[in-house]
Amino acid sequence: MSYFKYYIDDILPSLGRLIKQKRLTDCLNCLELLGYSGDSSITLLAYLLQQEALAAGEVES
User: Where exactly are the structural domains of the chain?
Assistant: First the structure.
């Protein structure tokens, strides 16, 4: 379990950085490493991109 947590702790900061840089293919690869695939990864990525845009003030809620 601690190995898995360490693994996630490595991936999540990278995912956040890739989302901010809008490197979508790399984001999908990170989500695949976390166990998401297909429509679920695309849906989650769209949500994360929307949240990033809201946090940056690019989109009104």
Answer: 2-56
Distances (CA, A) of 47 to 1, 2, 5, 7, 60: 27, 28, 23, 23, 14
Burial 7-35, CB ≥16 within 10 A → b, else e:
eeeeeeeebeebbeeeeeeebbebbeeee
Distance, in Å, from the CA atom of 3 to the CA atom of 42, rounded to the nearest integer, reads: 26
pTM for the model? 0.68
The dihedral of CA 11, 25, 36, 57: what is its sign?
positive
Tens digits of per-residue pLDDT, 31-46? 888 888 889 889 988 9
Distance of CA 39 to the CA centre of its chain: 14
